[in-house]
Amino acid sequence: MELNLERPLLFFDIESTGLNIASDSIIELSFVKAVPGEAKPVVRTWRVRPWDYERGCQRPINPSAMAVHGIKDEDLAGCPTFYDIIDEVVEMIGNSNLSGFNSTKFDLPMLAEEIERIRKYTNKKPSINLHQKKMVDVQNIYHVLEPRNLKAAYRFYCGQELENAHAAEADTMATYEVLKAQLDRYPETLKNDVEFLTNFSERQKNVDYAGRLALNDKKEAVITFGKHRGKTAREVYMSEPSYFSWIENGEFTLDTKRQFSLLRQQFEKEKKDAAASLPPTDDALSRLADRFNGTLF
Fold first, then answer.
1. CA distance linking residue 140 with residue 204, whole number of Å
2. Taking the CA atoms of the chain, what radius of gyration do you get in angstroms?
3. Rounded to whole angstroms, how far apart are CA atoms 235 and 228?
4. Which pLDDT band, with edges at 50, 70 and 90, does 296 fall under?
5. Could you say which of 45, 60, 208, 291 has the lowest number of CB atoms within 10 Å?
6. Bridge partner residues of 57 (DSSP)
């Protein structure tokens, strides 16, 4: 079944130097963009030199990651950095919604982190907000309906073995084919609609990609870890505003820090607006009178 799209749906996959989103980098990025009315998707893949902006050098690949994808440090020596390709990446994403396999847990947070690094450490300010995109995680749909991995999903839904697994383009193309096959297999369960598929594949509505903040039933941001686990960000700010400074200075992803910062700005504005709406106190009127020597007019 072909995808029923009102706007493009961008499938993507990432290979990286490791699994720590805050301290690792993208080394391969592949996009498969399904466009409404077009029979074939647009495919683009980049090899990326992982750059450590703070140290000004290439970031090394973790041996455990190298064992999975087979990409070595020397393979990336002549490749562009993410800074070099950011304009192309943003242009290709455009107004697309997003899709991937297990992307909400890793690929999407890693992509967001690289964009935030560009914002923080360079003169470029990418005009894109990934939080505004719908995200269809094909793995979550798969795990609900047929719990296995991408290789098994491709065999189950597409009837063939996935060759060249863990190469970004092969994995991304397989994800694209699996979602289409899922729609064919479960017509009574799945609706060929990106918003429905986003909601179906979404297990927890996170505010940040690392899942340190999530929305509760009242659409309030709730802290999901540590001593304040289960509390709303608002009640933590009101009782312990220094916690937000601890987040800013801690070892959290830049996206997590940004979302906490946006919440703090919101709460500070609410406090100021509330204070401004209160009638003046007797002390405030007395100070105003003293300022004018007791004569207001």
1. 11
2. 24
3. 10
4. very low
5. 291
6. 52
Task: Identify whether the C-beta of residue 169 lies closer than 8 Å to the C-beta of residue 29.
Answer: no
> Residue 71 has which token pair?
């990409």
Dig out the tokens for 180 from the structure. 């289409």
Pairing of strands 97-100, 9-16: parallel
Rounded CA-CA distance 208/223 in Å is 11
- The helix or strand, by DSSP H or E, that contains position 240, with its residue range, turns out to be none
- What percent of the chain clears pLDDT 70, i.e. is strictly above it? 94
Residue 27's H or E segment, with its range, is strand 26-34
Written as six digits, the tokens of 219 are 């659409």
Long-range Cβ pairs for the range 197-203 (8 Å, 24+): 197/99, 197/136, 197/141, 198/97, 198/134, 198/135, 198/136, 200/140, 200/141, 200/144, 201/104, 201/135, 201/136, 201/137, 201/138, 201/139, 201/140, 201/141, 201/144, 202/104, 202/135, 202/137, 202/140, 203/140
Query: How far apart (Å, rounded) are the C-alpha atoms in residues 210 and 259?
Result: 11
pTM for this prediction: 0.71
140/197 Cα distance (integer angstroms) = 10
